[in-house]
Amino acid sequence: MRNPKPKKLHKLMPELITKIFPQAVKLEYQNRVYDEYGACPHCGCKKSWAYCKEEKIFCRLVTEDGFEDIKVFVVRRECSRCRKTFYSKSPFYPNCSYGKPLVDFVLFLASKNPFNRVESILLNFGLQVDRDTVKNYARRFKDRVSKQAGIKMFDEDIGINLLKLFFNVKNVKELKKKYPQLKAVESGSDETYPRKKGAKKAFKEENRMRKLLGEEEKKYPDGFTIAASYLPTIKSYASLIVTENPFNSLFARLLRIPLLGSDYNLTDGHGAYNDFPDRVRCLFHLAKNKAKKDKVLKKIKKSALPEEIKEYLSQKYRELKEEVLKMLKQKYPQFLTPNGEFTGALTTNCMEGGNWRIKHELRTEYTNINSIASRSLLITIVDSIYTFRHGRPEESFTHANSSFKFEDVMSIEYKKEKFCSPQLQFNPLIVRKMIMIRNVRW
Fold first, then answer.
1. Residue 237 near residue 162 (C-beta atoms within 8 A)
2. What is the dihedral of CA 127, 128, 133, 139, to 10 degrees?
3. 154 vs 116: CA distance, rounded Å
4. Which listed CATH number (1.20.1250, 3.30.420, 2.60.40, 3.10.450) goes with 144-198+224-280+352-434?
5. Strand, helix or coil at 151?
6. What is the pLDDT of residue 438?
7. What is the pLDDT confidence band of residue 439, given thresholds at 50, 70 and 90?
8. pTM, whole model, 2 decimals?
9. Which residues belong to CATH 3.30.420 in the chain?
10. Distance between CA atoms of residues 195 and 224, nearest Å
């Protein structure tokens, strides 16, 4: 096991954090014995006796004198019937070296910060956790969420059903049944493409060479695809897909599985969404596309002033908005208030803002699909479960009605746990071949 590098506490940090916090951890956990137990996991017998005590490191503190381990003792018990041993209930997740409270703290911080930044924040609290450990915890969380709430294709976990994770329902239809107050629910779907680390520089260099050779230049640098669906009514994400492949109709079909039962689905003009049931085109994207084909606008641009062009576009947008509103009011009367106002969303702004928040919280570029997938998952979870927004205290529907905690996922133990890359191969034969190769490796 590699020893961590020596660390120094920041001299500007107040004593409340550098001294009081570590002392509280010591008082609560140092040399604590965990002996709470239930029935034998092997045969179900309720009678057992203490077999031995095992010492484990709950966390590691950074002090002025160096590192200090906070150790706890977990009692191992022997069943009176089958004579097999088992551990008492302990404050540790499977395959995680530190205690549950610290792992939960790491995952929460990783939803807002890159892995190396999490290590820096924990150092300010006097806690030693390496950047690679933060990354491993985030990846394990993502892997276990995929097993619990994965959206499958060809027996592979491609996406995440966040509704199943939050509310233990498969789709919006079941969500409405569980919460009758949700009588009208619309959804929005969109995708974004964060660049890979170093892709911008490589993109410029490759296009420079292509230009010299007289070849067609690339339009975009290499990146990842983050596709998500959102429920504006409850301000929560519903599904998530992170992949290295371009967005296509197969991904769109997977993305819409949790959306079954939503009254209508808002999307942009991407052809992958053509099969969406009750699809409604985003008003802004629709106006944009119409402006490109407007012959009158092309003539005005040659002679009119910018103010006149702006006034013409505003008028056209108002006309289109009235037309779309009229159609939606007739088709979806459940969104009408007693005053006749339409409360449903007209644009994909909910998803545009969601995409911006995901990229903002990522804060840095990645090369590894597992790293960006785990961080994107944590970001969408914390973005859906909040108690403060718009500059004031505000509790989300998910926070008020969901009992989800990191413990619900991290406590589950899987025998063959590995970091799967959520990619989709378009040829089913290739997918089956990959699965066979993977099984042979195992």
1. yes
2. 10
3. 35
4. 3.30.420
5. strand
6. 36
7. very low
8. 0.87
9. 144-198+224-280+352-434
10. 6
